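User: Alpha-1,4 glucan phosphorylase, Bradyrhizobium valentinum:
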Amino acid sequence: AIASDSGASAPSPIALTNVRTGLGADAIATALIENLYCLLGKLPQHATRNDWYMCLAYTVRDRMMERYVATLASITETNTAAKAVAYLSAEFLTGPHLGNSLVNLGIWQAVEEALSRVGQDDLSSLLDQEEEPGLGNGGLGRLAACYMDSLATLNVPAIGYGIRYEFGIFDQAIRDGWQVELTDKWLRFGNPWEIVRSEITFDVKLGGRTEPYYDEAGRYRMRWLSEKVVKGVAYDTPVPGYRVPTTNLLRLWKAEAAESFDFEAFNVGDYYRAVDEKIASETISKVLYPNDEPEAGKQLRLAQQYFFVSCSLQDMIRLLIMRGKPLDEFHSYWAAQLNDTHPSIAVAELMRLLVDEHAMEWDQAWAITQQTCGYTNHTLLAEALERWPLPLFARLLPRHLEIIYEINRRFLNDIRLRYPGDDQLLQRLSLIDEAGGKHMRMAHLASVGSHAINGVAALHTELLKQTLLSDFHRVAPEKFFNVTNGVTPRRWIALSNPNLSALITRKIGDRWLADLEHELEHLEPLAIDGDFQKEWQAIKADNKRVLAGLIKERTGIIIEPHSLFDIQVKRLHEYKRQHLNVLYLVTLFNKLRRVSSAAEIPRTVIFGGKAAPGYRMAKLIIKLINSVAAAINQDPVVSQVLKVVFLPDFNVKTSHHVYPAADLSEQISTAGKEASGTGNMKFAMNGALTIGTLDGANVEIRDAVGHENFFLFGLTAAEVERLKAEAYTPRSIYDSNAELREAIDLISSGFFSNGDRGLFQSLVESLITRDDYMLLADYQAYVECQQRVSQAYSDQNAWTRMSILNCARVGRFSSDRSIREYCRDIWNVRPIVPDER
Ligand code: B1H
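Assistant: Predicted structure for Alpha-1,4 glucan phosphorylase:
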């Protein structure tokens, strides 16, 4: 039976061949014309490209509804035992929906055929119409989207809960070599993928004070008299699994005024104040914070977090009650995963809902909260750890502050019993940092309130246990798990690299996209097959031509498709060391100006990525890349063998063309700093070789593909720490390495900045005097490793063999594997088989 989300029983299932559901070309063609007419009010002869995109999107969405409704029923109906996952994340970087939906529903060809029947021959131009929802900064938000794809594909019922930002991550333009930020108006032409659930709304209180009272049973209780209330409205986007009956949902909350008019103000004639209130409420879901680090002390950021967490938990309780289950079984029906600390206020909010709103005893509420929550840590960087100044926290969430004090009191008392007299330990574990101005430590709240804590790659989890959360590891080692990140092969191979996908299917059958872990390795024997190598090379060459076309269109730079495509795409950050890559480029430039370049392997070095608007050094690195690129590209000799490109506005959509075109993947972070990385996996799946440090998931990728098929360089995490402890002096490296000095001096000289010697001075200074990220320590090893890359590339057959092996051996980096591990180790959830519905 199919039930609606409102709990009412629905009419019997609609026939599969209905014009709104049929998956064949006939039904789709009819539906296109009908939707164009009924939803957009257009006849085919008047339809614009965007009209066609919109009616195609609606037509595809229609085709998900039956599975969507049925999946939802499995978590709303009484008599179902299925435990569901609530993935709580401040970011979901889904990327465009259309192409992915066609892949997952298996209707790509039917849609192409239907389009040609209605006179539209160019599916790719319609795919291009879609404005991507940029509701995330980078890896963390994209991981959440990959996990939603895998949850659905594995038939695990799940809801992704987050924020429907009106403005996502900014669009990046490059002017005079500098990054310029433009607002992302992704909703400008409407969003055909979402369904607004005007009836699913929750009130969220903010500010004010608390007050004790005695309830009817004479129990001493607390109530929260808030200063204001905002309303969250649910916007649902279906998430179809890959060729399975499950279609999950992404439920994003939009903030609205609790009352669209403040009638009291209106009645006393203060119409403008009434409207102001409305605007203030809507501000909460207005814009994504564009930093890949927390915004220190920003009240709005905390309000965003609390807003979406409160709506989500209230919704989860509503759904449980709808299923006819008692509240004390909450944890048997929900596993809530906290994607970093951004949703960690969930620990206190669930306690508040259970204790204050539903009158549950503290101990029982605490047991439920801990059993429900799991916490994923994504970074060890000190500056990326969320801490809220207590006064700010108290002002916005006075009741939660009390609850957290009580959680802390009980937690520390328990520690006192187990470790008598260790006051230092208590201070280090406390949820409150008492040093300086008092702060709330959100990673501690998440750790105490969860039954499981995980890092995102083996090395990262080890470091997490040894450093950031070592005390928590000491007092509760059983809570710790590793779940190495993964990426969905549906988007990152099938959709982005259709030709490679077709080749793989021709050779090993079509099961690999649903079982990458076990199937992809069947490619291995083909690595030495000459004919297969030729086909592999031809596809890579095609993909490089496509990217070359895109680069010409976006930057005007003409690149040589036969050159080695050496690519570094990721957020700009000093620890990711894009400027180490630049130091190598300047070194190469110096060398090529001196000696004949004839012997050099031609390279195109491509950068892409956004810098946080307030991160000055990251923006300066973008300027440096563009300045060095300009000098190299206009040098008549050097540009014969070397071109450098900064591809503006790197996002999910652009990235579809980037990963498949790479020969070399740059993963060169300072060891110990990149928690996992996920771009490293996308590149390898598409046959790029990696040049990288022993950091994040690189370690596991290298083990998987074979050490001989990976270009390793640089210090290990342990060596970095040791060197730091021994008083690292970058200047002595600068003094003793002539090539390095020449490169740095050329940057200082003003050569790349029209004689302006001041422009890059702060960057050069930081390298020579502090070099927090150890570029100079790794410089020589990197340059030499790049020489090994060039040599290896000169033997195309050997390179192709390594490329095939890289792809064939990275099956375990599918997000399906990651999600299976979360299900088994952390969530204790099982797939629902279709006939259980
Ligand atoms: C990652 C973040 C992050 N780690 C704060 N931490 C943010 C922190 O808006 N904020 O405040 C946003 C993002 N993002 C990344 O997560 C890691 O750097 C990558 O190494 C990792 O692959 C990715 C997914 O686990």
